[in-house]
């Protein structure tokens, strides 16, 4: 769920330490080095995402110390999705896609989403715009006038 609320990759969530989490009464953010791009990122996070962090520990401690990624975890995720009525094969990375698609659907501009995902090139993010365009077309086609 943390990935769906932040857009972070598994690799960045797994290595996230408390020294990279900044939180006060009005603002919550992460400042970390992305594993894939090695770029330093500052990512504002929502109150909801911050609530998933749990009790603050020492700076060098991992935020999610028991997080693991395996075929067993993917199987459990798939079973969870099937119970929710989702028949597609879903893996952890799908939460990152969910974040981007939800942000677009809620009106966040492509440039901001690109920065939040840590994409170096906005063309990588433009893939998500096609998903939203398809959803718009499907929504428009739902209303049919019968004369």
TrEMBL record:
Q: In this record, what's one Pfam family?
A: Phage_integrase
- Where is the Tyr recombinase domain positioned along the sequence? 1-141
The biological processes this protein is annotated with in GO are: DNA integration; DNA recombination
The entry's keywords:
DNA recombination
User: Could you tell me one molecular function GO term of this UniProt entry?
Assistant: DNA binding
What CDD domains has UniProt attached to this entry? INTN1_C_like (cd01185)
Q: Which PROSITE patterns match?
A: TYR_RECOMBINASE (PS51898)
Origin, by domain of life? Bacteria
Q: What is the name attached to this protein's record?
A: Phage integrase family protein
Source taxonomy lineage?
Bacteria, Pseudomonadati, Bacteroidota, Cytophagia, Cytophagales
